[in-house]
Protein backbone atom coordinates (compact mmCIF):
# COMPACT_ATOMS: atom_id res chain seq x y z
CA UNK A 1 0.00 0.00 0.00
CA UNK A 2 1.11 3.60 -0.49
CA UNK A 3 0.11 7.08 0.67
CA UNK A 4 0.19 10.02 -1.71
CA UNK A 5 2.00 13.22 -0.81
CA UNK A 6 -1.38 14.96 -0.80
CA UNK A 7 -2.85 12.43 1.65
CA UNK A 8 0.22 12.90 3.86
CA UNK A 9 -0.33 16.67 3.89
CA UNK A 10 -3.93 16.16 5.04
CA UNK A 11 -2.80 13.73 7.76
CA UNK A 12 -0.16 16.20 8.96
CA UNK A 13 -2.61 19.11 9.04
CA UNK A 14 -5.16 17.03 10.94
CA UNK A 15 -2.59 15.68 13.42
CA UNK A 16 -1.01 19.06 14.08
CA UNK A 17 2.02 19.30 16.36
CA UNK A 18 1.02 16.56 18.81
CA UNK A 19 3.74 14.02 19.65
CA UNK A 20 3.64 10.80 17.63
CA UNK A 21 5.30 7.43 18.15
CA UNK A 22 5.06 6.70 14.39
CA UNK A 23 3.39 3.30 14.87
CA UNK A 24 3.30 2.36 11.18
CA UNK A 25 4.58 3.51 7.81
CA UNK A 26 3.55 3.30 4.18
CA UNK A 27 5.57 4.11 1.08
CA UNK A 28 5.13 7.65 -0.25
CA UNK A 29 3.75 8.10 -3.75
CA UNK A 30 4.11 11.56 -5.33
CA UNK A 31 1.14 12.86 -7.31
CA UNK A 32 1.42 16.32 -8.81
CA UNK A 33 2.78 18.50 -11.55
CA UNK A 34 6.42 18.44 -12.65
CA UNK A 35 7.53 20.73 -15.47
CA UNK A 36 3.93 21.30 -16.52
CA UNK A 37 3.13 17.58 -16.69
CA UNK A 38 0.93 15.64 -14.30
CA UNK A 39 3.14 12.95 -12.76
CA UNK A 40 2.85 10.13 -10.27
CA UNK A 41 5.81 8.16 -8.94
CA UNK A 42 7.32 6.45 -5.91
CA UNK A 43 9.59 8.75 -3.91
CA UNK A 44 11.51 6.15 -1.92
CA UNK A 45 10.36 7.84 1.30
CA UNK A 46 7.89 6.65 3.91
CA UNK A 47 4.91 8.33 5.57
CA UNK A 48 3.80 7.81 9.15
CA UNK A 49 0.19 6.65 8.79
CA UNK A 50 -0.77 8.42 12.01
CA UNK A 51 0.77 11.91 11.76
CA UNK A 52 1.69 12.22 8.06
CA UNK A 53 5.38 12.99 8.66
CA UNK A 54 7.77 12.01 5.87
CA UNK A 55 10.81 9.84 6.66
CA UNK A 56 13.68 8.51 4.60
CA UNK A 57 14.18 4.75 4.52
CA UNK A 58 17.10 5.13 6.94
CA UNK A 59 15.04 7.21 9.40
CA UNK A 60 12.19 4.67 9.24
CA UNK A 61 14.57 1.78 9.88
CA UNK A 62 16.14 3.62 12.84
CA UNK A 63 12.71 4.19 14.41
CA UNK A 64 11.75 0.55 13.92
CA UNK A 65 15.10 -0.66 15.30
CA UNK A 66 14.78 1.57 18.37
CA UNK A 67 11.22 0.30 18.89
CA UNK A 68 12.37 -3.34 18.73
CA UNK A 69 15.04 -2.72 21.37
CA UNK A 70 12.71 -0.83 23.67
CA UNK A 71 10.13 -3.65 23.51
CA UNK A 72 12.72 -6.18 24.70
Rounded radius of gyration (Å): 14 Å
- In the sheet with the most strands, the strands line up as 1-2-3-4
Q: In sequence order, what are the helices and strands, one letter per element?
A: EHEEEH
Secondary-structure content class: alpha+beta
N- and C-termini, Cα separation = 28 Å
The helix fraction, in percent, is 25-40%
- Total strand count, please? 4
Silhouette: globular
What's the average pLDDT? 92
Catalogue the unreliable spans.
Answer: none
List the helices and strands and how they pair.
Layout: E1 2-4, H1 5-15, E2 25-34, E3 37-48, E4 54-55, H2 57-71
Parallel strand pairs: 1-2
Antiparallel strand pairs: 2-3, 3-4
Verbal overview:
By secondary structure, this protein is an alpha+beta fold. The protein is 36% helix and 38% strand. It contains two helices and four strands. Strands 1-2-3-4 form a four-stranded mixed beta sheet. Strand 2 and strand 3 form a beta hairpin. It is globular. 10% of the residues are buried. The model has no long low-confidence stretch (mean pLDDT 92).
In short:
The protein is 36% helix and 38% strand. The protein is α+β, with helices and mostly antiparallel strands and 72 residues long.
Structural features:
four-stranded mixed β-sheet, alpha+beta, globular, 72 residues, 36% helix
